[in-house]
Amino acid sequence: MKDNKEENYTIGSSKEFWEEMWHEGRTKWDVGYAAPPIIEYANQLTDKSIRILIPGAGNAYEAEYLHQNGFENVYVLDIASRPLENFKKRVTDFPEEHLLNQNFFEHAEKYDLIIEQTFFIALEPKLRSNYARKINELLNPGGKLAGLLITDTEPSESGPPFIDTKEEYIKHFERIFNIKVYETAYNSIKPRAGREMFINFVKKETKDSH
Ligand SMILES: C[S@@+](CC[C@H](N)C(=O)[O-])C[C@H]1O[C@@H](n2cnc3c(N)ncnc32)[C@H](O)[C@@H]1O
Q1: 63 is a domain residue
Q2: 205 pLDDT band (50/70/90 cuts)?
């Protein structure tokens, strides 16, 4: 397989860049609470022992919600240290070893569910396929990527965020995943209403998944 290591350190994905964004308080994406479509999705999950990863989690309000609602194996990953420090102060009983200050592309564990919330659009477009492949690699057989993708009718000229059309995003996932849900969320927060796709992509079975 092609080694994309260097590519994964481009502007939108370097630690220095994101540490600076956090340091300067340039966090306009941060809405201050968990996204209602993700809460609703989490509320219908019955097995609270599943391993859940939130990559590019920022202040990770979704992780806080999951933790408070009895999910035992929630992991929060961010390349910047500041949001993890914020989280540690805010959610004092969250296991410290579940806070991962790491580049997503270098992470190597296995999960049953990965939650997407404005991380994919933080990455440069050329990293989209790498993201899809990495998510696939991090999932256990039958594992899922669920969450939200913000779309627009035209691609952003610059970023982050690198917002794009729903047709463009799906190209990176449809060959690797079974697309269970890819539809406009009906319960987005007002400023994102009509522009967010709710996703539920399931890892495809392979010969060696059995
Ligand atoms: C747009 S913010 C979204 C934060 C959060 N998901 C939210 O919706 O509030 C993107 C986050 O991804 C983190 N990030 C960017 N590139 C990363 C990478 N390669 N590995 C891990 N985290 C990364 C940034 O530090 C930032 O916190």
Answers
A1: yes
A2: confident
